């Protein structure tokens, strides 16, 4: 997957290379609460809304919810993705901020399951979340 971060809050995801077909686009919301939107351009075309809920009290991290194939998931903070119904940890993202790495560079430690469509949603939502995190840090 090739990722292009455009001006403002736009991200384009392409298959394989920068000349490959567009898989999806995203409009990132950097407000404390709101919604970022992921638009899939390949069939079946669809839209996934990432609903951002701000931090509740100082000890609880913000959460971002989305629904995919009838299941609801949430990012706790900017690094851990859980399935809401079961509370099962699906993915953990670690940014690489050491050795001069930028905060968007990192790795997903694991993705539970073998559903390639869900894996794509997880990867794209992780990039959106990291772009949102970076944008929120710059705004402070």
How would you describe this protein?
By secondary structure, the protein is of the alpha+beta class. It has one domain (2-139). The chain is 17% helix and 42% strand. The chain contains 1 helix and 10 strands. It has one helix at 116-139; strands spanning 2-5, 10-14, 22-27, 34-40, 46-53, 63-68, 71-76, 80-83, 89-95, 106-111. Strands 1-2-3-4-5-6-7-8-9-10 form a 10-stranded antiparallel sheet, covered by helices on one side. The radius of gyration is 15 Å and the shape is globular. The model has no long low-confidence stretch (mean pLDDT 84).
Distinctive features:
single chain; 140 residues; alpha+beta; 10 strands; 17% helix
Helices, by number, come to 1
Shape by Cα distribution: globular
Strand content: 35-45%
**CA gyration radius, whole angstroms:** 15 Å
Helix and strand run: EEEEEEEEEEH
Percentage of residues in helical conformation: 10-25%
Instruction: Give the tally of structural domains.
Output: 1
**Structural class by secondary-structure content:** alpha+beta
Oligomer: single chain
Please give the structural blueprint:
Layout lengths: L1 E4 L4 E5 L7 E6 L6 E7 L5 E8 L9 E6 L2 E6 L3 E4 L5 E7 L10 E6 L4 H24 L1
Antiparallel strand pairs: 1-2, 2-3, 3-4, 4-5, 5-6, 6-7, 7-8, 8-9, 9-10
């Amino acid at each position: 997957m090739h990722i292009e971060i455009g001006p403002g809050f736009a991200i384009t995801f392409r298959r394989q290379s920068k000349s490959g077909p567009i898989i999806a686009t995203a409009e990132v919301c950097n407000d404390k609460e709101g919604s970022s939107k992921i638009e899939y351009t390949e069939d079946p075309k669809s839209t996934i809304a990432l609903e951002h809920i701000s931090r509740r009290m100082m000890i609880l991290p913000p959460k971002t919810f989305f629904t995919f194939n009838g299941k609801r998931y949430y990012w706790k903070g900017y690094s851990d993705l859980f399935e809401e119904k079961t509370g099962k940890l699906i993915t953990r993202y670690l940014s690489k901020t050491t050795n001069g790495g930028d905060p968007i560079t990192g790795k997903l430690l694991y993705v539970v399951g073998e559903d390639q469509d869900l894996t794509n949603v997880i990867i794209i939502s992780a990039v959106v979340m990291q772009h949102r995190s970076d944008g929120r840090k710059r705004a402070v």
